[in-house]
Structure formats: structure tokens, C-alpha cells
Write a structure and sequence with these properties.
The complex is a heterodimer of chains A (about 200) and B (about 250). Chain A is an all-alpha fold. Chain A has nine helices and no strands. In chain B, α2 crosses α3. The chains are: A mainly alpha (about 200), B alpha+beta (about 250).
Chain lengths: ~200, ~250
Amino acid sequence: MLLTKLFIIFLSAALVNNYVLNRFLGICPFLGVSKKSSAAFGMGMAVIFVMTIASMATWVIQHYLLIPLNITFLQTITFILVIATLVQFVEMVIAKISPALQQALGIYLPLITTNCAVLGVATINSDSNLDFIGSIVNGLGAGVGFTIALLLMSAIRERLDLTDVPDCMRGIPIAFIIAGLMSLAFMGFTGLVSQ
Amino acid sequence: MQTILTATLLLGGLGLVFGLVLGYASRKFAVKIDPKIEEIFKALPGANCGACGFTGCMGFAKAVADGKVLPDRCVLMDKKETELISKTFPVLLCQRTANQQRKFLYIGIQTCKAAMLLSGGNNSCDYGCLGFGDCSKICPFGAISLKQGIPVFDKELCKICEKCIEVCPKNIIKLVPNNQEVYVACSNRDKGKDARAVCKAACIGCSVCIKACPLDAITLENNLAVIDPKKCTNCGECIKKCPTKAIVK
């Protein structure tokens, strides 16, 4: 029963309520880092990682500090503080332990600090009253969904470079149209799981 | 009042704790970076815009330090600033002379790329410049002019966009550091006799320059002399001794 529930949370975060294509969070990296599949993959992995640990940390802060002290209005600023610190800390640890991983994630890890999708995950977790495990799964699903969207977009854009797109539409304009079409397609997942 | 106090204490406390944790972590997990990379990184704008094609300024600094890429690729720095990091300049590694022999008479499309398709071009030397000026045509800054079919680079106009390097089908335009005045202006890797037969100014791999160099900066790779820019001091001893004048300043 629990597993089913977690699976539904995961699927819902990854596909039905895709953070990029349905909630329109994190559009900046979606358009900025989707020119090459390799970069998109690196970014996606970094986002999955950060979203999962941010879900964990913010849940703890929310339930052990903000709610008991009755100061949930500080949620946004506290979450920003927590996420920023967490990312910086993780980057330092990775730099020491695994330079190869740091090389792979590159600048994406620190850049994610200011990614609204990560803050979005943390806020949505607390808004939908998920428990600790549920929050982690939701964060993981959101990250996976973000990666799927980013990888699909990068694959399309790599092919678009080789096609005959009118000059005025090249680059960002056509990317926006593609993003809109992809968003429409992802809306089709609505009803796949009923929450 | 109570709420304000709690809020201030909590945020202040969290900030303090996180600050201490990060401060401790930065010491505990400090990674030693190559001082050269650090120096380049400091000189970069630090915008992490990614326009250079690398993952942030640190990735770019590493690539510059490794010599994989030129500092000029940074769009936020002007030419003077990039010169502080490294000075580089394209040179043609060929001294084809105007009256050099031709393999055959080529009357096709007058570009190096087209000529290259016909058994590697009509230059008697398989490694040499074809002289149709693809590089000068593509240069957006007019920094390359053809003098008797040989490209000449203008240091003042060149912005090191590397377009000429990409377009050259013979791959004989290379970047050398600006302070490396002495370089081997030949790409012929044939054995001495064969090289000499196709071009009078070819490097024949005779090793005279290697013996002449007081700093052991020259090595022979595939019958071609290679100067190590890190060891070379531009003393010019090799130029004096080179029998074919393949080393130039």
C-alpha cells in the first residue's frame, strides 16, 4: 500500500505534474542548458540530486523548527537559506571526494542554488502535507521529470539544428514553440493518476 | 513581540550555524588547485555565463591552463585583458614559395577545400599550403592577406576567432604563444630526402637544430622538428644552424 502510494507520488511528480512542462518552474535552465544532450544530462543529474536532498532537509526544517515555533511565514527565506547552504556544502564535499563527479556536474550544481524548481519542490512538499519519505520521493520524481523534459528538449534541439528552420525562428523562438508543444503533450498525462 | 523575537533568533541562528558549517567545510574539504589555474580564474570575469562553451569560469580556466583553448574565447573580456592571461597568435606552418613545383595543373573551383578533393591538391608537398586563400576569405576581421599565394597574418587585426584554423583543409594553421617568436614553419613529415624533393624550405629532420639548441627545447617527432615553447627562449641558435631555413622567427 505504502509502495503504491509512493509510486503514485513519483509518477505524478515526474509526468503528470512535470515541473517544467506543467508547472512552468525552472524554464531558464530548460531553455539555457538544452542545446546539447550531454550538458542536459549533467544538469538533469545535478537537479535530481539537489531536489532529493533539498526535499529531505527542508522537510526536517519545516517539521522540527518552523511548525513547532509557529513561524511558517518564514518558510520561503528559510528554504532559500537551507538550499543554498546545502548545495554549497555538497559541492565542497564532492570536490574533495570525487573530482570526476564534480567535473561532470560542473557549474550546474552551484547554478541550481538559484533554480526556482528546487524551491518549488520544497514549497509544494510542505503545501501538500507529504510525510518524510513522501517528500523525498516527490523530490526525486520532480528531478526525474525535469531531466526527462530537459533530455527530450535537447534531443529535439540537436535535430532542429540540422533542419531548415526559417532564419527569424532559429534559436530561442523555435525552442519556445517546441516547449509549448511538449507542454501540450505532457498535459495529456493528466488523469493518468488521480491524487 | 514574541514572534518577531523567535523569527529573528531562528533566522539568525540558522544563518550562523550554516555559516559555521560552510566555514568548517571549506577548510576540511579544501582542494589544492594548480596555482596557474587559480591565477587564470582570478583574471576571468567570474560571470559563469557559459558563452565560452565550458562549464563556468573554472572549467574555462582549467582548459586555458591545459592549453586546450584560447583565453580569447571569453566574450566578456576585451583583447587587452585576455592578453594578460596568455598571448597567442596563429601562424602558417608552411613556407611554400611562389615558384614551387606543382603536381599538376589545377583548373577547378578555386578553393583549397575543392582542390584538396583532387588527390590532396596540386601542391607538390602533400602537407603544404594550397594557396587558394580559404583562410583569408573566411576571416571576418580581414586579418589575413595573400601574398603570392601565401597567407600573411596581421597581429593587430587578428581576434583569434580560430575560423581560419577550422577552415584550413591541411591543418597547417596553428596557434603559438605570442612570446614564442621562433617556430618550425613546416608540416612535412616525410623523410628528409622526400621532403627536400618537394620543397626547398622543408624540415628534413636532420637533427641539426636539436644539437644547436642550448636548452634542449627541440625534439624530433615523425621527421619534423618540434619546439617546446616552455623551454624555448627565442635565442635563435636553431635558426642559424637550420640548413633548409625551415625554422623562422
